[in-house]
Amino acid sequence: MGYDLVIVANRLPVDRVDQPDGTSTWRPSPGGLVTAIEPVMRANDGVWMGWPGGTEQDLEPFEDNGLEMFPMTMTAEEIEGHYEGFSNGTLWPLYHDLVAKPEFHREWWDSYVAVNQRFAAQAAELANEGALVWVHDYQMQLVPQLLRELRPDLRIGFYLHIPFPPAELFQQLPWRRQVLEGLLGADLVGFQLPGGAANFVRLVRQRVGHKTHRDMVYLPDGRTVRAAAFPISIDTKEFEQLAQSPEVTARAKEIRSALGEPRKIFLGVDRLDYTKGIYARLRAYAELLGDEHFDVEDAVFVQVAVPSREQVEEYQRLRDETDRLVGRINGDHGKIGRPAISYLHSSYPREEMAALYRAADVMVVTPYRDGMNLVAKEYVACRYDDLGALVLSEFAGAADELRQAWLVNPYDINGMKSALLEAYQADDKELTRRMRAMRKTVRSHDVNAWAESYMSALTAVPDAHGKTVRPARRR
Ligand code: G6P
Fold this sequence. Notes:
The chain is α/β, with parallel strands linked by helices. It has two domains: 3-232 and 451-460, Rossmann fold (3-Layer(aba) Sandwich); 236-444, Rossmann fold (3-Layer(aba) Sandwich). The protein is built from 16 helices and 18 strands. It has a ten-stranded mixed sheet, with helices on both faces. The two termini are 38 Å apart. The structure holds 6-O-phosphono-alpha-D-glucopyranose (G6P). Residues 11, 30-33, 137, 161-162, 308-309 line the site of 6-O-phosphono-alpha-D-glucopyranose.
């Protein structure tokens, strides 16, 4: 028996952790993708295909927390070529505005193709006749087309969680045409923002030569593909309830007291990734201390840096640079028992995150480029007291919706300093005015609304036998 819904993602929502005693356990895997799709999986009776981390080869399907998991193995060579190489050494920097320099290696590409083929073949086996397959993110861009070749009966959706770059950047990719054609295997290609969808349609017209009209692509075989924006969100209610729980409330108090009851707590929470702008943000904060706007008795900056992609060179360099910067700032500005920056290189369960959000007065989210950034939305969801300030990069997808944040250009250190200081000094009236408006947004646009709008758009695209080739009307 197969499934009516198959989620295909590079990662499972859980990572396998091997214990010293030879046994293994599972823990939630990092990143926004998992946070977003998990509730959708729960609501539908599907299976989730993905890699559980590591190189274990003897994995069996299993159930985790009521979710059906189909683990996909990866060899050490595939991890190097597909995951660390093409996905995170080529595509990730290329799609994030070249914040780091992408590397182009033919062996990485070969490995990317091979892994995408294996995932597509497995999805073809798991899906029932006419099933829905939802493929996620940049590591899996060839799966839609490969899968359609194997199973033309399926309805295939693709969603890109990261930005889709402008043509000027994308066309550097030696395999640009193959990637575009891979995506065109889907009925619906979803992006975070309208700009990404527009970049894609333009590239398809210019590089593949298909006819396009607004958000529709017309393929020579009569099939149509729609490219549109579906800004992702979080389970707002779940975070709000978590933040209100007595345990989290008590833990938030405990955190403030452990930090020495400063007047204000600044907070950053990111995967340790060069796109997140952690270094520049901490420098801006240190300059505020240096300019004596406040001191370490008044405020502390808690930076949670979740370990990520630690075998990739750029990430190792970033970790060294961040370690060094934090050490220097604390050396220059700290006092006994009062660090300027409380730096935590670790990941934490949701409860602890909710407590940190509640304890923090100023949430600082300053990526150079980010598809959406769910941390910003999680913070807002947890502030049921209508207080707390959000300093948010203009270059995060979330800035399109959270207009009442203190919006900053992360390349402009002085601008960031001013925004951090304003957020620090803002009175409750100002904070409430902004937070209320942002809360309204994340409440009405939660992850369920996102999934529903994606799913209904997916089923509305005419299928391979559909006669409707008229341009769909824009909403
Ligand atoms: C981002 C990406 C995801 C990815 C996650 C964690 O959110 O969009 O596809 O899974 O980061 O990165 P990792 O490399 O650990 O899977």
